[in-house]
Please model this.
Amino acid sequence: MISRCRSASTFGGVRRGFSLAELLVVIGIIALVLAMVVPTFSRSPALAKRAVCAANLRNLAVGFASVLAERQIRSDKIQGTAGASWTGTIFPYISYSNKALICPEADPHTEVARIRFTERYWSSQDWDFFGMDQSLPPFEGQPAPWNTADYVTYYDSGTVPTMWKLNEEDYVIWRANSDVGHNGMGRNKHLLPRYTPGENPNRYWILFEDQGGVWSSAEAFGHDYNDYAVHVTEQAVNTYTMSFYEFGSSDANNGIVADTGLDMWLQEGSGDKAGVGPFYFSDQATNYGKNRYDPPRGVHQILLLDYELLVCDPDAEGDSEEAFEKNVAPRHLGKCNVLYADQSVQVQSPEDITPRDTAKYELYWKHTP
Model:
């Protein structure tokens, strides 16, 4: 009997693997494909962040346009903006959201100015309300006194600060039961309780006593003016609106001071029923720098860009700490996003916009009013 099973070789078929040449060709093709695909995948996160950054700048462009439009409409413009940065001015026009101020490729600036609220006397005594636990002795490193006791305790100790915090409900009660005016806080000290958050903890009052014993300037200089109050609304972190109310006529001044040294002093009001303000105060962290010059709306000149300082001074000397080449931030694959006053956003290399080049300085930076 003849078997019907035959090997492949019986019919002339040959089993063999890939030749060396074929393997090299396949490996070469795979390597070529990987060389094309892998960089694209590795660049994708960076490209996505660059797109987010560009969207941030477009949002800020809308905010700047809103600021300019309102300033043209309102005769009083924007009342009292104190702070070292343009971010504070634009903040309410971007819905008090700092996301648009932060480039996703970098951490926000840590040196953003902190708003301090203070009163200064003839003797230059200076209390910082918002940083009370870092203020002058004897409260240094301790909780704010209005969170721990009533006012009379500190007043009688001779170490009372020149300010006190009340929630809105307690302030209404205090005003209804106190005889304000000359030395209003001193004469009504027994009516000032320890601070507790009211119905809205973001709204409260600060009362100021401009004399009170050894801790005031009155003993040294003989001055004792009428006390006053400030109504505070916290809009967001490090963002406040304040209205100032006098308990009669006073020569005492109060003001907002930024850590960078910028002061805004507010003179006395015109009585306990009339307030001055509200004034708006804010500083916010950002990764973008604004052109030192204010380019006219609609022109193709630089307004904002990826930068390490809040302001870009195109006139700064190359060897200074504020020099363009030391602070420009090509975070996006060696390039930076640039917002122009015509609201366009472009991705450019630092060399494309350097103010060291005279032609580029004239084209992108310089503005002659």
